[in-house]
Design a protein that fits this description.
Blueprint (H helix, E strand, L loop, with lengths): L1 E3 L6 E3 L7 H20 L5 H8 L3 H10 L11 E2 L6 E2 L6 H16 L14 H7 L1
Antiparallel strand pairs: 1-2, 3-4
Helix pairs in contact: 1-2
Length: 131
């Protein structure tokens, strides 16, 4: 399947990746540089890591969200997309993740003949309003 690279917009073919081979190799080098820099300088800030590794702050935060870094910059802050509490990785805190899981389990276990309103998908905004 042909698709355009998310980074450089070149056409390439790969069954699962969204980056062409050149951009994928560059992303791997960038990740390696950030990981190695943080291992050598565990007290570094996000700005220092970005400057010294020629990586953007956004990319570093994406690595943190994905949980790919063993050592995290000392000033890195991530917040839950639903309630806003501070989290270490990902996009949603454990409490909100459990609330989402419980809501989905309750909806799935309801008997047939569900009302139209019970068939809705509960978004983060809906859960935020319930609190």
């Amino acid at each position: 399947m042909l698709k355009n690279c998310d980074e450089c917009n070149r056409v390439f073919s790969h069954p699962t990746r969204v980056l062409c081979q050149e951009c994928y190799d560059q992303a791997l080098r960038s990740y390696g540089a950030v990981r190695d820099y943080l291992k050598a300088n565990p007290g570094a800030t996000v700005a220092e890591v970005a400057k010294d590794t020629d990586t953007t702050v956004e990319v570093i935060y994406e690595y943190i969200r994905q949980g790919r870094l063993d050592v995290v910059p000392k000033d890195a802050r991530l917040y839950c997309a639903i309630c806003g509490t501070s989290i270490d990785k990902g996009k949603v805190c454990a409490s909100c993740r459990n609330d989402l899981r419980n809501t989905m389990t309750q909806e799935a276990s309801k008997p047939e003949g569900k009302s139209k309103s019970s068939l809705r998908v509960h978004t983060a905004e809906h859960i935020r309003k319930q609190r």
